[in-house]
Each structure stands twice: as structure tokens, then as C-alpha cells.
Amino acid sequence: MKLTYLAGIILVALLVGAAGAQTFNFEGTTSTGQYTGTMVLNDDGSRGLSIAGVSGGTLSAPVYSVPAEDPVGEPMVSQEWTIDATDGEGFAGCSVVGASGDQAWTSTDVVGKVATVGQVAGSIDISPWVLTLNGVYAGQQISTGAVGAFAFPDPSGFINSVSMGTSAKGDTATIQARSTGSMYLTQGAAAGSASVDVDPVYVGVNGAVAGQSGVSEGALNALNTVNGNQNVFVSGSAVDAQGNTADTSTRVQGGVLFFDQVVGAGTIDVAVDLFGIEPEEDTSGEGASGAFAVQAVEGFSDSRVVSTTNAESAGENSAGVKARADGSFDYIQAALAGAGSADLGSADVGLDCALAGQGGDFGSGFVEHGIASGFAADSQGNRVITTATVGDGSLDFIQVVGAGDFDVNIDADVFESSGDNPQVTGSGAFALQMVEGNSYDEGIAAFTGGRTEDGDTAFVLAASSGIAEGSIAQFSTAGDANVDTGCEESDDILVCGAIAGQIGNFESYGSSTDAMALGFGADSDEDKALVFSKAGNGTLEFAQLVMGGQVGAGEIGNVNAALALQASNITGTEGRTLAGTKNAAGDVSLVTESFNNNNKHKTGYIASASAAGAGSVESPFLIPVIGDDTISGTGAGLYEFGNGGTLNNYNMTAYANLEGTGQISDSPPGHVNLHDAYAYTGLGDFDAKIGNHL
Amino acid sequence: MKFKLSFLLAVAVALLVLCPVVSADIPPAATPETQGFSSATTMQVLGTATESDSLTWQISNINLDGTLSNAGGALVSTDGGAVLIPHLPVFDDILNDTPGEVQYTVAYSENTIADQGLVTYAKSSALDTANQVVGTRNLQASKLLEFVGFDTGRAISSEDMVVDGAGSIGVTDEVFICPFAAESTGFTPEFCNIVEMGSDVDMTIMSLATTVSERSVSASADVPVAADYSIAVTGFGDIPASGSASAFISAHLQEGSSTPIGSFNFEPFGEVDAYLTGKGEDVQYSETTTVSGEITTFSKVMSYQSGMRRTA
After folding, report:
1. Nearest to A20 by CA among A2, A5, A39, A33
2. Beta bridge partners of B107
3. Does residue B5 have a pLDDT over 50?
4. Running DSSP on this structure, what letter comes out for residue B189?
5. Is B89 within 8 Å of A91 when comparing Cβ atoms?
6. Who wins on pLDDT, A456 or B61?
7. Residue A545 binned pLDDT confidence (cut-offs 50, 70, 90)
């Protein structure tokens, strides 16, 4: 798994330590159990403790050693035990406090099970390989049985392993794994300063980090559960001293889970030499504060797997992704929150935001139901959501959501421009996804939309039913953005609203299978625009763009409206396209085309566009099908191309304006079975239809 | 001169009571069944009178077996020197809430012989083995002896009280009611304290008054261990007392130390508090006051109090 590398970095940190100055040993047996421990106090003020105990069971040296020894140096404290808590409960933990106040600890609680535990903890100041660390660490390896024994997980008891790191300045990272069944786990946490230098990326973190890698299997007949009715639950969370948070978790009911998770919090610097331009500043972890969480999981669930990864910045921007499936799964989720900065060599990026993303697949074997979704909201109330579902099939997906403030300054040299550096600043929320799937029964669906604090709304939806395969890319943003191109000849671009778009295709293989794509936009003044395409028992290719709100782009165009555009290609026994608008004054425009040719596949190419606004749509580029640079009211238009994409020289438009007049134009020849276009004003002064329904 | 003596005595007693020593006696709680007895004696004799009293009282909150066991909730390192107080779910099952063991021995004796003279003797004694609070005592005795000897008449009276306590490591939360006690330390360190007080008189004429009391049993460690002794010798009117008198206090106080190291975090399961401990204090004190000849006034008051929450 991809995160194994990151987990490996942490484990390297867990394997190095320092010698102690004073050592105290603890041992005892009571009528109910036994305990053992070692405390080390160093001259520099650092200290460590290992402690283990069991009630209703035994502690013994493991037959097969769990590798917890350090090949480079000595940890401050370490221990290795086989805890037989079949009839009781056992605990083992190592905790360390550094001279500067950083803390790290690792621990495992076992109930009704036998587990072999190897743990280490200590302080560290080394630079092995590409890694530089100065701080404290604690780590453990857990085994409830030999690898490969997961076919028969123990249905009784549970095991709970936790590692945490806290920096002296208040950053915290926690990682946890709980299971009612079998588990093999490597887990650790560290606090202090760390940096990784792998050209062209240099990352510095001063705070706390925790990670784990393992595999666990939980049986559906488990006598105990963790976190509700789940059998396996792995999670991580990080909080920096400023209050930025990130968390990630996966829970499985009745199945096998392979997992890698890394979380961290603190001051973070990132430098990337993208274009051979050296970063101007060193990254020593002294930058802005933030928190991140990453997980990579794969496996199979008899009943359900649920993964979530979320981030929330101290400025109350939030973003999260969620995946849920029953069947096989393999995906990565990540989230970042905070006021971060990055020197990318060619660009400086400043963020006060929350970001989340996920990518992977459901049902490489098979999945009965799979849902992947993302949600983001900024502190101003701008919100976006994206989601994709599949039933009885498989789904590959990539989703990214974010919210907050951003400030990107790009070096003009990258564009070989003599002007000022281009700059993009703004505040809002965005979501995008790319999905590709196959369905053997219940279809595929994808939705992405955004809504601003003022009510500007835009969303796109694509869905199929029955046996089908599809590929869809969607995006949506909500909020404000200011683009300074840096060119004297070019105006700044101002965006204040919601935008959504999608492009994709469906191919249906069964009977009674429909595919559709829909886009809707509305501004805060209740101007609305809609585009829609549908194919029955055939194929549907589509591209749609909708928006609501204000866009000021100078000569390119200025819009204070709702706008929807689409281009679609439909084959099959049934098809329909629609473009319609309605503005706040009640002006309506609509153009549609449909065909129903039972058992005969018709091939056509249909392009349609729709726009609506309160008298401020000024863009020949945005509404070419209307044939007018400016409208004051609503307008809708349609171009249709015939078989094989041959232009039939057909267009049809309708629009109404606020002055109480309307206009239509119909330019035959064209051969469509059914079509109509109409427009009327909110005052009722004009109402006309054209086409076969006249 | 007599004023100077009294002043010095007062200073010495004040030093014993007020010096910032770490007296941390933990009194044992009473046994489930307690006893109380008292006696009152009055004699007015022309001739010879004797009084002989003896008390030895031992008590333990665990077992009077000559050994001390640590509190069930504390982990003590095998070689000593460190103590862990775990707040972990598993250890709640492994360990128990047995308190740290303390044992106390209280001894009291009086021997008085008055021969060939006019003797007036009055004494009241009381022992209560039940739990005490601040202001009450387990053992109390007051004595008044007036003697006018004939040509060869003499009165000899000696009194001695010992409070001897030793305790092992305990868990502060379990022995204190005061919710703030554990803020200073999570455990109560070992201690071994012995204090002895008494007097001797050998007089041909005198008016002698003594009081003795001690407290070493209470329901919680909020009540400090205490011992008090006082003696006063005078004559009759303008006639001074004649003979010799002495009073003494000796103490050997040994206290364990408690140095918090801090907590080892094991969230979400709990934490472990760690301490260093050892012998942190050793006080040896001895004071004897002797007067002889014609004694107008001889007075000595001695107090001893030991605990983590003292009133004096």
C-alpha cells in the first residue's frame, strides 16, 4: 500500500533511542493477577515507563519474538510479552516524556484474547536516510496470531491498541486500532520536529505525528463489538495547538481490513521544486500550523465498511470525505486543515482552509452497494457536496473537496510573461470528482453541487439504471474568487456565485435501462437555468456547465444570472434533451427535443444551451446559440446535428425580455421527431411555440 | 534565673512544635471493636502511699505481625526508591484498595512512692481505643500529688509515655478525606517516628501536677498524631518545694520523601503517576530539664504533633 512508505518512516523513528541514567523495576503478583514495569529517568530530564499487567491471566515471554528491538541504538524503555487474557484483561504500555516536554506513548488493552506485544519508547535526535528527527517516540507491534490465520478469527474478546504523541506546544496526534477478531499491527507515535527531504519535495513538521499499519479480521458472530456493531475499527486524529483538526477512520463489520493510517499536527512547511526553480526558503517546520490525516485501506466486508476522513480548520472551514461499501474495497483518503503555506518554487501558496480527498475503487471483486462522497463548507457558509454510488458492480473514484481562504501567487516567469505575477485570492468551497463504474443491476449515479452563503446554487447529476457502465467527471464551486492575471491588457476576473459542471458518458447493456445527465443553476435572485439529457437503452455522452450568481470577466463576459449549457450525444430507443430558464421576474424560456423510436436506435448529436438573468448576461462566448450578445430576460436555444455529426443547419431559440416582448426563431430544415421551443414573459405579453407541436 | 529557664523551655518546646519538619504520621483506624476504660484515684494519707500504673497498647490497621505491607494500590520498585500509582482499568482489577500498613505502640507508666509524710494524691486516667478527632485523645491521665515529709520522709514519682509509630507507603486518596491532600503527593511515604516524654521527682515537700495525653488512632489521616505532657512543681504558699525534679522529651523522627516525577500518559486508558521516594528526614531531639534544691516553680509543657494536615 502506498502509505506503507510513510508508516515505514515512522517506524524508523521508533527504532532508535537513548540510554537511561536511573532505572527502577517493578514486579508483583496479587491474588487476581500480576504486573511488571520499568521506569527510566535520564539526567536531561527525559523519562520513560514500560508497564504491563494482566488480571485473570498470565504474562510470559513470547515464544516467537515480536521485533521491537532497535538495530541502531537502545530505546529508553521496551518490553515484549505474550498476554494471555483469555479469562480476563491485560494491558501493556510504554510512555515517554522528552526533556523539552514532548510526549509519546503506546498501549494495548486485551480482553478475552491472547496477544503478543512488543513495545519501545524513547527519545531521538538522529538523521537517518532522508529523515531528520528530534523528539520522542513510542511504538508497538501486536499479533493475536500468525499471519494467515485470519480465516478463523476468534469470536470472543477484543483488542484495543492506541499510540499518541503530544508536543510541548500542544499539538496532538492519536492513532487507534480496535478489533474483536484477529489483528497484526504495527503502530507508533512521535512528537518533536521532523523533516523529510526527498527531491523535489521537502516537508518539515514540528509537532506530533502518529501512524499505523496492519491487518485485522472481525467475524460477524463476534461476541463483542467495537464502536457500535463493528468488528474492526481503526482511526487516527490530529489537533494542532491552534485548533486545526483532522481525523480519519475505517470500520468494518464482518470482514478483513488491511490498513495504513498516518496523522499529524503542528507547524508544517512544504517546499516543492516543480519547475527546476529552487524554493526560496528553507522548510524547517516553523511555518503555519495545521493538521492532516491520511489512510489507505483495502479488504472485504461481508456486511459493511465505512471510512471517513475529515478536516476542520481553526477558522471553521471544514472538509470531509466518506466511503461506504459492502464487498471489496481499496482506496485512500486524506484531509488537511490549517493555515498552511507552501513554497512551490514557481508559486507561493497560502491557505487557511480545510481540504479532503479520496481515491480508489469499490468492488474490484464485487460490491453490492458502494457510496463515495465528499462535503466541504467554509466559515462564510459556502458549501459543496459530491457523491457517487454504484449498486451490484464496481466503481473507481477520485474526489477532492475543500473550503476556506486561499492566496496563490504565481511567478510570471512560468508563463514567460513580462507582466506582474498572476495572483488568485478568494474564499469559498469546491468539490470535484471523477468516477468510472460498472453496474450489473442497480446502476451508477454521481452528483456534485455547491451553494453560496447568499443562495447561489449549482449542481450536476448523472445517473444510470440497470446494467450499464459509465465514466463521469464533475466539479462545483461556491463562493468568491478574484483572479488578477497580471496583464495590463486583461481585466481581473471576479467570481461570486456557484458553478457546477460535468462531462461523461454512459453505455447501457440491458433493456429498460436509462441514463441521464442534469445540470441546474440558480442565483440568489432566483434566476434558474436547467439542462437535461436522457438516453434509453443506448448511450449518452454529455458535457454540462451551470452557474448561478455573478461573474465579471470584462470583455469576456459579465453575468448576473443563472446559466446552463450542455452538449449531448444520444443513441438508443429513447432520447430527450431539454434546456430551460426562468428568471425572478417570471420570464421563461424552454427548448426541448425528444424521440421515442421503440426498438430502433437513433443516432444523433444534440447541442443545447440555456441562459437566464435579470438583464445582465453579456457574453457572446457564453451563449452563442442564442445569437445575441446581450439579453434582458430569459433565453433558450438549441442546435441539433444529425447522424454522424452532420450539421443539419438547424437552430431554434426562444427568449423573453423584461420589457414585455418575446421572440422566437426557427430555422429549418431539420428533421427531428418531436421538438418545441417557447418563451413567455412574466407579464404574459408573449407566448409562442414552434416545432411539431405548433 | 527561673524566668530564664522557663523562657528557654518555652523556646525549646516551640522549636520542636513549629520547626518545618515533614512529620507525616498516618494514624491507623480503630479496630472494629473498640474499648474504653477509665479510673479515678484519690488518697489522703499520713504515712505511706504507692501508685503503679502501666500501659502498653499496640495497634495496626492490617496485622500485628511485625512487618509492614505497602498499600495495595501502589507499585513500589523492587529495590525501593520509586513508587507508581496506576490509574488504569486493568490495574484496578489486579491491585486492591488495601491501605498502606501502619503500626503504633503506645506505652505509659507511672510509679509513685510517698513515705513518712502527709500525702494527698488524686489521679484520673482514661483510655479509648476508638477513632479520635482533632481535640480528643485516646489516652489521657492527670495527676496531682501533694507531699509534706517528716524528718526522713520522701516522695518519689516518675512518669513516662512513649508514642512509637511506623508506616509503609500508602495511597493519599485512600487515607485522606481532604480532597486537596493528593495535590501535594499521590502517596504517603514511609515513616518511623518515636517520641518519649516524662518526668521524675524526688522531693521532701512539694505540690506536683502532671498531665499526659496522646492521640494515635483516627478514621482518616486528616487527623494528625499528637502527644502532650506537662509538669508543674510548686511549694505551699511561701514555702518552696524541696528536692529534685526533672522532665524530658526525646524523639527520633524519620520521614520518607515524596518527589513527584510527573504522570506517564496512557490515554485513553488512563495514566500512571510516578514518584521518587526515600528517607527524606531524620530528626533526633532530646531535652531534659532538671531542678534541685528549694524550688519555687518548675513548669514544663511539651507537645508533639505529626501528620500531613496539622493544626499546630
Report:
1. A39
2. B56, B162
3. no
4. P
5. yes
6. B61
7. confident
Per the structure block, which three cell numbers stand in for A169?
506546544
A194 close to A203: Cβ distance less than 8 angstroms: no
Q: A340, A324, A335, A328: which is closest to A290 by C-alpha?
A: A340
Of B78, B86, B268, the CB nearest to A51: B86
CA distances B107 to B13, B31, B77, B162, B201, Å, are 22, 18, 34, 5, 20
Cell numbers for A164, please give them: 499518541
Using a CB-CB cut-off of 8 Å, the residues of chain B touching A41 are: 261, 276
Beta carbons within 10 angstroms of residue A662's beta carbon: 24
Among partner residues B93, B266, B276, which is closest to A89 by beta-carbon distance? B93
| B77, B66 Cβ separation under 8 angstroms | no
pTM: 0.80
Residue A20 carries which DSSP code?
A: -
ipTM exceeding the 0.90 mark? no
Helix, strand, coil % in chain B, rounded to nearest 5: 10, 60, 30
What residues of chain B lie within 8 A of the CB of A95, using their CB?
A: 264-266, 272
Residue B30 DSSP SS3? coil
A91: confidence class by pLDDT, cuts 50, 70, 90:
very high
Chain B partners of A90 at a C-beta cutoff of 8 Å?
90
Q: What would the pLDDT profile of A595-626 be if each residue is shown by its tens digit?
A: 665 544 445 545 454 444 433 455 443 444 34
Candidate from A184-198, A503-517, A657-671, B287-301 with smallest mean pLDDT: A657-671
| Distance from C-alpha of B90 to C-alpha of B105, rounded to nearest angstrom | 37
Mutation target to probe the B interface, by most B beta carbons within 10 A, among A95, A172, A227 is: A95
CB B38 within 8 A of CB B127: yes
**Contacts with B153 (C-beta within 8 Å, 6 or more apart), sequence order:** B114, B115, B116, B117, B147, B204
| C-alpha to C-alpha distance for A7 and A1, rounded to whole angstroms | 10
Q: CA dist B273 to A115, B16, B68, Å?
A: 26, 34, 23
How wide is the angle at C-alpha B246 spanned by C-alphas B240 and B250, nearest 5°?
155
Nearest C-alpha neighbor of A46 from the set A94, A102, A92: A102
CA-wise closest residue to A691 among A663, A653, A658, A636: A653
> Smallest Cα–Cα separation from A628: which of A687, A679, A572?
A679
| Ranges assigned E (strand) in B137-269 | 139-167, 170-171, 187-188, 191-215, 225-234, 241-266
Q: Which residues of A touch B266 (CB under 8 A)?
A: 93, 95, 105, 107
DSSP B81: S
Q: Is the pLDDT of residue A108 over 90?
A: yes
Q: H-helix or E-strand containing A687?
A: strand A687-691
Cβ <8 Å between A26 and B84:
yes
Instruction: Tell me the shortest Cα–Cα distance from B263 to chain A, in angstroms.
Output: 9
How confident is the model over A128-154, as a mean pLDDT?
67
HSE, CB side, 13 Å, CA atoms: give it for residue A14: 33
8 A C-beta contact, residue A403 and residue A428: yes
Are A26 and B265 within 8 A, CB to CB?
no
Amino acid at A642: G
pLDDT confidence tier of residue A322, bands split at 50, 70 and 90: very high
Please give the average per-residue pLDDT across A310-339, as a whole number: 85
Listed in order, strand segments (DSSP E) in B61-138 are 75-76, 82-87, 102-128
Strand partners, A334: A294, A357
> Would you tell me which residues 134-193 of chain B have a C-beta closer than 8 angstroms to some C-beta of chain A?
none
CA nearest A29 in B: which residue?
Answer: B94
